[in-house]
Amino acid sequence: MFEARLHQSSFLLKILEAIKELLNEATFQCTQNGIQLQAMDTSHVSLISLFLSQGGFDNYKCDRNISLGINLSSMLKIMKCAGSDDILTIKNHEEPDSITFIFESQSYDKVSNYQLRLMNLEHEHLDIPETDYACVMKMPSSEFARIFKMLLQFGETVEISCSKEGVKFSTSGDLGSANIKLAPNNTTDSDKAVFIEIQEPVVATFAIRYLTLFAKATPLALRVQLSLMPDSPLLVEYQIGDKGHLKYYLAPKVDD
């Protein structure tokens, strides 16, 4: 039996909006500790890793490990049927080959029930090793989204350069070039602070398009963390309060 309840269904909608352009379908692994999703995007350039803690739900029951193969476009259609303040309950026990979504209005005067057929998807869990990154940057997630929205107008790839002076984002194209440099600041407003820790200089190039897609997770968290190592994937991490985290790994561009 699996059952999970969220006081606001809009939270799950934000999760789907943050991954829908990277994944067409995915397997949600449900355990007594929470829900995990791990999948490569359709181009096999980025890896999405989501964890929703059982403690982040208003009610959570999972008496055995189950895998829910879901078409994300179909799930998104169901989620958009709910009001933003509706209470959401997700169930999988009466019909094992489907998952049920129940939306209740806050006043309990309206209840909607939807069933979605599950898919048989191949799933391989990848062990992601803990890494001591050479450069770690923490910044407002809104600023991260703004930077890559601007850079996308100038080029397709961005060179990220980390040094003791700060982190620079550079791109160029037919229109011209753009360079944005961020240095640590001493603001007392923790939500606006930029924190940069450098162990060694790093220079790497990544596809801007993917970074703009990662930024769609901005509504989930006020801050985002970027972690880099030479010749390794970039980690873009959103901590979702006490509910869990959403991590994106992006392979660097390699010169031909």
TrEMBL record:
UniProt key word DNA-binding: yes
Q: Where is the Proliferating cell nuclear antigen PCNA N-terminal domain?
A: 1-123
User: Where's the Proliferating cell nuclear antigen PCNA C-terminal domain?
Assistant: 128-253
Which InterPro entries does this UniProt record tie to the protein? DNA_clamp_sf, Pr_cel_nuc_antig, Pr_cel_nuc_antig_C, Pr_cel_nuc_antig_CS, Pr_cel_nuc_antig_N
- For the keyword DNA-binding, the answer is yes
Keywords attached to this Swiss-Prot or TrEMBL record, sorted alphabetically, are: DNA replication, DNA-binding, Nucleus
Protein role = This protein is an auxiliary protein of DNA polymerase delta and is involved in the control of eukaryotic DNA replication by increasing the polymerase's processivity during elongation of the leading strand.
State the similarity comment: Belongs to the PCNA family.
Q: Which HAMAP family match?
A: DNApol_clamp_arch
| Protein's recorded name | DNA sliding clamp PCNA
